[in-house]
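Can anyone check this?
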Amino acid sequence: MPWDAVLGMLESRAYDLFDAESAERRRPPSLKSVTQTRQPGRDDLDERQKSLLDSVIWRMKKAATQARRFIVGGRVQGVGYRIFAQNSAGELGLRGYVRNRRDGRVEVFAMGTAEKLRQFSKELEKGPMMARVTEVNEEPATVDTRYADSFSVEYTV
């Protein structure tokens, strides 16, 4: 089962922990007559419960997040490779950066699930139409929170 499906299932289960039905079972007998008639959701939680729930979901997602560094060689500079990598990463929901290197190669740092990173690696091997990719070296990297929100084009190193 893909990690995205597992995380979605766990997220929905976490929200179920705070639904009105289970709250009704935990309510003291004197208050059991007071029930909600509408379907509960995340908005029914108090701030402490929302914070706890968000923390649990964030940790589950972070645990599934991996990071990889790709060094791409060939004719990959001056052909739109960085924009290609940024667009491909955006379509896959990855975060990180891409930048040119002074040695003529392109460095790509990406964070996401293992399956999405595998798909991204295949896209990097193809490259844009004008590129000629001769090598893609992949190595594990540590998750970097500076790039947790987007995939950017960085300056040359």
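Reply from J.R.: I decoded it. The longest helix spans residues 47-64.
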